[in-house]
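User: Second chain of the day. Same drill as before.
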Amino acid sequence: MYFIQLPDYSPLTGVNTNKHGKFPFLSSLSGLFEPAASTFEYQRSFPFERIETDEQQVFYVSEPNLAKVFKNKVAEHNEILLETTRPITEEYTKELMQLFYKGYLLGLDGFNTEIGPAFPSLGLSHQKEMLEQFMEYCQRDLYFEGFAIPKLLHNLGYIQACLVRAFKEYKNLSLLTTKAEPVQIPKTLPENTSVQALTTDTKSALSKIPLKYPIEDIITIWLVLLDVPQCKSLSLTPEFKAESDVVELLGSMFTDISGEHSKLPDSPHRFYELPLDYQPILYLLMHATYKLNYTYTRLSLEEYSKCLKATFSVYDAIELNYMPGNFTKKQPAAIAAIKELENSFYAKNTLQILSKIPNYRITV
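Assistant: Same format as last time:
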């Protein structure tokens, strides 16, 4: 049993929101805050958002609603509302961050108490099992519904820090216990069989989506990723810096079955850790690929959703069955962001191809 010393916390129901009437309720322009995934994906490389305050205090957040509040650009594109009507102020955002941060600092030190004095004496496998259970427990309680209750924010900060510490400990233990399994090569090889053919990757490969629509157009629309970091309405980092980076990405998700000489490489699958604001752009690009390709393959949108979730960190908190309905919801914001890039060659080409999709209603 964990966190029983926290104020206004119940081991049965988690963080207490009963006193919400005295404090503001937060939401987003896109709607009310939704809970994250029910299980914490501790197999990810680093499932946290880095937050830095004006005072250069650094902490890490996996709860998506808190990350959205703390990374909100009040002066540029304010997306957080108080009482669903008025925009949040920068001063109040800083106040909320400090409430969370104070709990976070206590949680960094409190982790050892929570995990218990017997933990260091356990075997490595038992330690990993205990950490997995602890991380799932933390995930259960890490949900910011929008009630800006000071003690609640303090408790969420404490629990978040414990989750960060547990994840770090788990990864360190994994490095100690993971060993590469040697590939057994038989002494006598079957005819026409090479040694290379017997070497298999231990990771399950993503099933690539077949494309029969002209691959040049698919590449063209995705090349807008090179310029979207210039969108003032989004907070993005330049993850893709050359056309070859984008083509490599597409080669890891799709395979060209048109029968023509393909410009798409057979890239190995890779998981991309990206800022959350990439989500609507990637929704749009993948939905456009689906719409253009559907006549040829009749592949369902669910398959494209699986590919997005398996490839980009921005979909970690979204259940797979919710994703198909989100494609069109995010579409207007993504198209508006691309239209901001008035001087972008890539954006103009992308909009030109997107205008071929009738229900997008794009005129160029």
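The CA atoms of residues 128 and 269 lie 27 Å apart.

User: Great, on to the next one.
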